[in-house]
Structures are given as structure tokens and as C-alpha cells.
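#lab-general

N.A. 3:47 PM
ok so I finally got the sequence cleaned up, no stray characters, all 149 residues accounted for. can someone with queue access submit it? mine expired

B.Y. 3:52 PM
send it over

N.A. 3:53 PM
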Amino acid sequence: MALELRKHRHQNARLCMRDFEDVHSEGDDLDQEESFFMQLQRERKQWDKEQSKLMTVIELQQHELHARGRKVEDRACKIAQSFAESIASFEDRFAKVEQDLVAELSNIKVVAERLDSTRQPFILILEDRLRNMEIAVRAMSAKLDAALC
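B.Y. 4:20 PM
back already:
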């Protein structure tokens, strides 16, 4: 954009010089030359004002872009932080569930071992009772057979 401004200024200067040469070559009087230079100065001042305004607009746009960029970066950081906190929370809950599961499995093993150790005497008692019942049934059967015969 600055290059275009320079080209435009250079072209204006050439046109002014041609106009000045034309005025000189025609032999106009000194008043016309002064009015030409005054017009040239007015146009240069206007151009400088316009250029200054354009540069101000460009600077303001650059500041706006930088401000928006910072806002976007801040928002992205907040989102990333929130995401990291969510992941950390999930990991904590997962670790808690895992610990609870290990504790529960350990409790189940203890209960299973207790059942195993208590089951043995029950089985022995049941086997002993079954044998006694079998002996009693045989004795009764023998008595019935004897009574029937």
C-alpha cells in the first residue's frame, strides 16, 4: 500500500511539473505561477492529511486484530485448561473406581476363603450324618425284614 502511495505522489508531482512548464512556456504572469504553487501546496497538504488518516486507520485495524488475537488465545487457553481439569477429574474417578474394585476383589477372596474353611467341617458333619442315617436305615430295614419273615 505504501508503494502505491509513493507511485501516486510521484505521478502527481510529474503532472504538476508539466503544468508548471506549460505555464512557464506560455509566458503567463507571475500571479498564475504563484496560484499554481499555492494549489500544489494545498493538494500536498490534503494528500498528507489523507495519508495520515489512512495510516491511522491501518494502525487501528492492526491494534484491533492484535486485540482479537489475544482474546482468541485467552479463550483457547481457558478451554484447554478446562479440558485438562476434566481429564484430571476423570483420571481421579477412574483411579478411585480401580482402587474400590481391587478392595472389593480382596474382600471377595477373604469371604471365599472363609467359606472354604467353614465348608469343610459342614461337609464332614453332613457326611457323618449321612453315614449314621444310612446305618439307621439298614438297621431298620433289617428289623423290617426280620419282622416280615
